[in-house]
Amino acid sequence: MVIKVFVATSSGSTAIKKKQQEVVGFLEANKIDFKEMDIACDEDNRKWMRENVPGEKKPQNGIPLPPQIFNEEQYCGDFDSFFSAKEENIIYSFLGLAPPPGSSEGRITEEIPTVPNGDVSGEEHKTEEETEKTEATEENEAHAEDNADADTTEVPTEQETDEAQEEEEEEEEEEES
After folding, report:
1. What are phi and psi of 63, to 5 degrees?
2. Bridge partners of 35?
3. What distance in Å separates the CA atoms of residue 36 and residue 64, rounded to the nearest whole number?
4. How far is residue 7 from each of residues 66, 82, 99, 116, measured CA to CA in Å?
5. What is the pLDDT of residue 159?
6. Which residues of 148-172 are buried (b: 16+ CB within 10 A; e: fewer)?
7. Pair 114, 99: CB distance under 8 Å
8. Residue 19: exposure state from Cβ atoms within 10 A (0-12, 13-18, ≥19)
9. Sorting pLDDT into bands at 50, 70 and 90, what band is 16?
10. 77 neighbors 117 (Cβ within 8 angstroms)
């Protein structure tokens, strides 16, 4: 499987250049095999990229901007999708690749279903350790709430305190007379 990153080597936009550099740099740093596909110098690459980005992922003008990421023929996503997957530590799932042994993504216990447009469906994905910590924390909080309910005594309001004092004073006066 070859990851294809569609870039524009002669882009005039610094924002696009930075996004392209971030994707390429991340893939290189993590030793993920990929191929840069230049859309600025190769009309076939530009045409292929534009035709294969799903409609819901295209901007309003209909022309997707680089970088766009594919695994062979399957669309993975754009820079925003890539960035989200990187932040959530699910980049291998995003790219449609098996995580390397020992990676934190490889320890995720739940299956992460991906859809063809690179979005990840499902709820928050946790490692076994994170799940155990969450369960233990919830259990401790439940015990703390139970203990708090059992130990609480009603504290009288200021008005109730004043009324009780007045009653005591009246009783004392009656006793004295």
Report:
1. -110, 105
2. 4
3. 16
4. 5, 14, 25, 20
5. 67
6. eeeeeeeeeeeeeeeeeeeeeeeee
7. no
8. buried
9. very high
10. yes
